[in-house]
Amino acid sequence: MANNLDDSQAELDSVEAELEMVELQISELLEKQTKLNSRKNKLLQNLEGACSSAQSSGSSKPPKPSFSKQDLEHYEESDFSWSKEVQAKLCSVFQLSNFRPLQRAAINLSMSGKDLFLVMPTGRGKSLCYQLPALCSKGFTLVIAPLVSLMEDQLMYLKSVDVPAVTLNASSTKEDSKRVLAGMIDKNSPFKLLYVTPEKIAKSKLLMSKLDKAYNMGLLARIAVDEVHCCSQWGHDFRPDYKLLGILKRQFPKVPLVGLTATATSNVLKDCQKILCVQEPITLTAPFNRPNLYYEVRFKDNEDCTDQIAQLIRERYKNQSGIVYVFSQKDAAAVATDLQKKNILAQPYHANMEPSDKSLVHQRWSSKKIQVVVATVAFGMGIDKADVRFVIHHTISKSIENYYQESGRAGRDDGSADCIVFFGFADIFRISTMVVMENTGQQKLQNMVAYCQNVDRCRRAMMAIHFDEVWNDDECNQMCDVCRHGNDYITMDITKHARDVVTIVEMASSMDEKLTPLKVCDAWLGKGPAKHRKTITVTSLSRLEVESVIIYLLLHGYFSEDFSFTPYTTHFYLKLGRKAALLKNDNHSITMKMKRRVMSHATVKKVSESAGEKSSAKVEGKRPADSDNKKSVAKKVKTLP
Ligand SMILES: Nc1ncnc2c1ncn2[C@@H]1O[C@H](COP(=O)(O)OP(=O)(O)OP(=O)(O)O)[C@@H](O)[C@H]1O
């Protein structure tokens, strides 16, 4: 009997070991699949380019795509019946001399009556693509925008260039509304643009009936849906009322619609197409690469992060405008106060401020009376200051899409600007608990963390994946810290460290104890409660290295999140992830790329070095945390008594 049991146990162990190997192989294959897909996309792009030129030279040809490069070239031309007027108004009204990429094509398509989705990075001039056609068409253009403040900014701007535009929203007076509703069916078109929120379309029968009349009179020239990704559940700013906008195309099928967004992926756009009931829209996607922006990630030391920011502002951005994004309203106030104490003209901005205070900060900043706005993400849509020279993130964003959008407020004038994010360990878990209820919140956050943790891939190329684009690292032009300071990393074998730290969490769990990531760090560094110190192998890594290893293990499935909810707050604990069991296998090893300035040579086993660097390269930028920690690097190995 005992023999039988032993045999079964042995077989079970062997099956489990085999399963672990299979799981490892699957994860390796998945990684390989991602890389191959990226290469495939790039090759397809190259092939598509080659096919288009072959087609134009008359050779034999694959079927023509629905909107080919030649079509695009056609719409880039300036010999349409409206071209002269468009060009004249570009100069005389908008005081611009040239179009930016895709603007002319978008305008020509829209003037030709085509439905269009225009995906263009933030600040590249999407508004012009419906404002200019509005001026060159009979009647008025209906613009759906998500925020009243955004409409007001647009109206202010349009007023400054003498373009008649109006809005209908909850704060419009009765008289205003009456005037606007009458204007909609006035053949003399007293205004060329009418801005409304999606809620207004959903709720105001009067507005819909006037639109119907205007449509029948041929006065509803065009419909523009700004921030069109808000239609889709998969878009990061989903707004339920956007879902009801399908009524517009159903009621007014002959009116061309243009949907504008800075952040939609192709899946989000497909969803928007369905929701808006647009049959066959043409999608124009401007390249997302902003070559004038320099992207950088810095490790965050909570104690002196604001000092570092202040120093940057004083030295590198003297007299230049910028934004510091923070996590919470409390942080906005605290960081702004800290900066003020260091003689920097900074003011906070967050959703909970009085609207008049918000506009005051915005105005002061726009007119350079203050240098820096310390803001939560509430400072976003509708911010149109061209000469923002830096956007510093005091805390990481909750997704790459958000980061792209927020950092993209820099350098709208095409002049060079910096986007720096301070990557802090504790911040990851603050954000993680904040997005816990969001569908894909954790995955998106992990992508952002992977962007920050990355040491060997061009930051642009990493962002591109999220916009269904493939950018070559060599197109970066050293405009990210990785490309500029290339090879500043080492590949490390962290298997033993991983085993040690996973054991800590395992032991805690066997004692029915949950550990937050910070507690795991402390315990591993030998700073936790005495009862833990007796049982664990204290690491010789520095705190920064410890944090990096834990983040790596979390990103790669050796750890996972264990949320615990109370009526007041959500706690983040670490538990073993699906790959933790692999560490029991002696043949399993984990390697990790780590920035030189993070790792200390004495403590980790170096597997291979990146090309071009000598092992004796000095470890730069040591922070107090590192040096403090060296005191405790006594290679203590404590075992059970
Ligand atoms: N052809 C052009 N040449 C120079 N500047 C331009 C051109 N087109 C637009 N701009 C300017 O670019 C700035 C940003 O334009 P706009 O607000 O339309 O951007 P956007 O793409 O709508 O951004 P967001 O996604 O933030 O709404 C404006 O100051 C605008 O005047």
In short:
The protein has 641 residues and is α/β, with parallel strands linked by helices.
Question: Per DSSP, what share of the residues sits in E-state strands of 2 or more residues?
Answer: 5-15%
Outline the low-pLDDT stretches: 51-65, 600-641
Write down the Rg: 28 Å
The description of the largest β-sheet is: 7 strands, parallel
Domain Helicase ATP-binding: 107-282
InterPro entries: DEAD/DEAH_box_helicase_dom, DNA_helicase_ATP-dep_RecQ, Helicase_ATP-bd, Helicase_C-like, P-loop_NTPase, RecQ_Zn-bd, RQC_domain, WH-like_DNA-bd_sf
EC number: 5.6.2.4
Catalytic activity: ATP + H2O = ADP + phosphate + H(+); dATP + H2O = dADP + phosphate + H(+); Couples ATP hydrolysis with the unwinding of duplex DNA by translocating in the 3'-5' direction
Describe the structure.
The protein folds into three domains: 69-285, P-loop containing nucleotide triphosphate hydrolases (Rossmann fold); 293-486, P-loop containing nucleotide triphosphate hydrolases (Rossmann fold); 491-595, Winged helix-like DNA-binding domain superfamily/Winged helix DNA-binding domain (Arc Repressor Mutant, subunit A), CATH 1.10.10.10. It has 24 helices and 18 strands. Strands 3-4-2-5-6-1-7 form a seven-stranded parallel beta sheet, with helices on both faces. A six-stranded parallel beta sheet has the order 8-13-12-9-11-10. The longest helix is centred in the first third of the chain and has 55 residues, at 2-56. Adenosine-5'-triphosphate binds next to loops.
Protein topology:
Layout lengths: L1 H55 L12 H7 L7 H10 L10 H9 L4 E4 L8 H8 L4 E5 L3 H13 L4 E4 L5 H11 L8 E4 L1 H6 L1 H12 L3 E7 L19 H6 L5 E5 L4 H11 L5 E4 L7 E7 L5 H11 L5 E5 L3 H13 L4 E4 L5 H12 L5 E4 L12 E6 L6 H8 L9 E7 L1 H10 L6 H13 L5 H6 L16 H4 L4 E5 L1 H16 L6 H8 L5 H6 L7 H13 L3 E7 L4 E7 L14 E5 L9 E5 L14 H7 L11
Parallel strand pairs: 1-6, 1-7, 2-4, 2-5, 3-4, 5-6, 8-13, 9-11, 9-12, 10-11, 12-13
Antiparallel strand pairs: 14-17, 14-18, 15-16
Helix pairs in contact: 2-4, 4-5, 17-23
The structure holds adenosine-5'-triphosphate.
Main location: nucleus
Enzyme class: isomerase
Cofactor: Mn(2+); Mg(2+); Zn(2+)
